[in-house]
Specification:
Radius of gyration: 22 Å
Strand content: 25-35%
Distance between the termini: 18 Å
Number of domains: 2
């Protein structure tokens, strides 16, 4: 009988008990992951879900180079497979809130998706532009450094007040969006700087301040009410941060002198919530990077389109009887 993926997903999120029934014979699972990367923090763990919605661990593991794994299911009739990212030091026997992939097993096979596991909506669309951003530095008294600030807003909205320009799919508990500016992307000199974590409203519209207000490199690094009430940061001063970083104020319009390519890239990632609290200089984007755009050239109030960047991970499961 075909099982409802949505009902099984709901049961998994609500279930607080898990374990292995020694009376179950178990089966082998051949699992292939696509667009999945090795972890720099935390551990992958596989789970099978039984008919009652109870999760059973298939063990923690390190991702193979080819993404192909064989797991032993501790139950003989798994209804769903779920992949989680377990936080550092995890020692409990229940899945973490960071459910990365999952899919219902029907007729011995399953297609694994992040939709409905990372995203709240199993029909969420990460394949289109979520909106635009601008370059502005609202925490300084000059317009000469506008190329050093990124804000997800429209400063020229009717009525004179900034307005929202970005709509993002809602995420499940355990995941949060984070914005980044990346210097020299794809080179040995690459450096990433966070401009804060943020969560869209129920309608997906992104408004309200992010986790670090105008940011540690802004003209008001200690003022959590500085800048407009939208995600963004100014990068205009070191403010005691290490000097081994690009010269401040940053120049997001800057191009490579040899290639003419933009020296800066904008990225919106989806992060495990357990890494909240990292400083801007120690954090790096998690592998889920659905959105991004090269800054290119343009004026400070020009709307710059945020494009799609990397597809979310997928996978497949085959039950071996």
């Amino acid at each position: 009988m075909m099982k409802s993926t949505s009902l099984l997903t709901t049961a998994l999120f609500l279930c607080a008990a898990c374990g292995n029934d020694p009376t179950d014979a178990g089966v082998m699972l051949n699992v292939t992951f696509t667009n999945l990367a090795t972890l720099s923090e935390g551990t992958y763990e596989g789970w099978v879900i039984d008919q009652l919605g109870t999760p059973h661990s298939t063990g923690t593991f390190t991702l193979a180079a080819n993404g192909q794994h064989t797991f032993m299911s501790p139950i003989d009739d798994p209804q769903m497979f779920v992949l989680t990212v377990e936080p550092p030091g995890d020692a409990d026997a229940v899945p973490s809130d960071q459910k990365l992939l999952g899919g219902g097993i029907v007729n011995g096979t399953a297609t694994l998706t992040s939709l409905g596991f990372v995203s709240a909506d199993p029909m969420a669309d990460f394949s289109t532009s979520p909106g635009t951003h601008v370059l502005l530095t609202p925490t300084t008294a000059t317009d000469d450094d506008n190329d050093a600030g990124i804000w997800l807003l429209d400063p020229l909205a009717p009525g004179g007040a900034p307005s929202a320009t970005v709509t993002l799919p809602e995420l499940n508990p355990g995941w949060v969006y984070e914005g980044w500016v990346v210097y020299a992307p794809g080179t040995g000199n690459q450096m990433a700087f966070s401009y804060g974590k943020f969560t869209p409203g129920p309608d997906g519209v992104l408004s309200g301040r992010d986790s670090d207000a105008a940011g540690p490199f802004s003209g008001a690094p200690s003022d959590l009410s500085a800048g407009p009430p939208f995600p963004g940061s100014d990068f205009v001063a070191l403010n005691g941060n290490p000097a081994t970083m690009p010269t401040t104020p940053f120049d997001f319009n800057g191009d490579d002198a040899l290639t003419g390519d933009s020296m800066w890239m904008h990225v919106i990632s989806i992060e495990p919530a357990f890494d909240e609290g990292e400083g801007s200089l120690v954090a790096v984007p998690f592998q889920l990077k659905p959105y991004g755009d090269a800054f290119g050239d343009g004026g400070p109030t020009d709307a710059r389109t945020i494009t799609t960047l990397n597809p979310l991970p997928t996978g497949s499961v085959a039950v071996v009887q």
